[in-house]
Amino acid sequence: MLEARELAIGYGRTQIGSGLNLSVNEGEILCLLGPNGCGKTTLFRTLLGLLPAMSGTVTLGNRPVANQTPATIAQQIAYVPQAHAPPFPFEALEVVLMGRTARLGVFGQPGHHDREIAHNAMDRLGIANLAHRDYSRLSGGQRQLVLIARALAQEAPLIVMDEPTASLDFGNQAQVLMQIASLARDVAARGCGVVLSTHDPDQAFALDARVLLMKDGHELAQGTARDVLTGPNLSDVYGLPVAVETTSSGRKVCMPALTSHH
Ligand SMILES: Nc1ncnc2c1ncn2[C@@H]1O[C@H](COP(=O)(O)OP(=O)(O)OP(=O)(O)O)[C@@H](O)[C@H]1O
């Protein structure tokens, strides 16, 4: 569905990364992990056609993304950016309704059906009570949940999420992870493809995701969480000793060694 081949990414003439390969299909979760500044957001912007590739190709639904209009791209991929406050006030529900834009005609106004879908998306994320609140006055975590609801309302077969749990509290992080898993794995509704970035390797284990581990704009390893998120790989990427252990319930957890060596 979404595929990148030998992709080089960057801004203007400044190359941020190269040699990137990935593919995501419906029902799959791909988790991007790597240190601050390694190029995750830049890669996302390139995958979404917001930033031209410096070389290599991005194909979306078997066509180069570079040849597709923003509306066609939006029908295929929903993007959940990192949450920022907008410069002017909107009701949270209006923000969610913006997810319907790519589905409306040129002068189309959202109708009853669109509002119902927007309400359902908010309900699913447990934020129905925020519908008529001023989006710019919500907390960072509440805004993040509204942006995820907007992506759900878009009803695209792929969702790209830039650090979707970054500003969420402990409970909401777990809640959003469960939503991501059910988006991809829900057999009744046809599963979406999900690409997300996170700074928490435990989340890749919890989601049983495929992992692309990045360092300095390049792929260090790609594969199952179990194969890629090893102590040596994580130690290499984050520059400190990391241990990967298995809990009594059988889940893997990653722990940096916090002892200092003097
Ligand atoms: N508009 C821009 N023009 C030039 N360089 C940029 C621009 N935006 C980001 N960069 C640079 O690109 C590099 C990669 O940034 P990017 O935001 O993709 O990293 P990231 O992996 O998403 O980081 P984080 O985990 O901190 O969000 C950084 O060195 C950053 O300074």
From TrEMBL:
GO terms for MF: ATP binding; ATP hydrolysis activity
Species per Swiss-Prot/TrEMBL record: Marinobacter adhaerens (strain DSM 23420 / HP15)
Known function: Part of the ABC transporter complex HmuTUV involved in hemin import. Responsible for energy coupling to the transport system.
CDD domains hit by this protein: ABC_Iron-Siderophores_B12_Hemin
Residues annotated as domain ABC transporter: 2-241
InterPro entries documented for this protein: AAA+_ATPase, ABC_transporter-like_ATP-bd, ABC_transporter-like_CS, P-loop_NTPase
UniProt keyword terms in alphabetical order: ATP-binding, Nucleotide-binding, Translocase, Transport
Protein's UniProt keywords contain Translocase: yes
Segments traversing the membrane: none
PROSITE patterns: ABC_TRANSPORTER_1, ABC_TRANSPORTER_2
Descriptive protein name: Iron compound ABC transporter, ATP-binding protein
Family classification: Belongs to the ABC transporter superfamily.
Domain of life of the organism encoding this protein: Bacteria
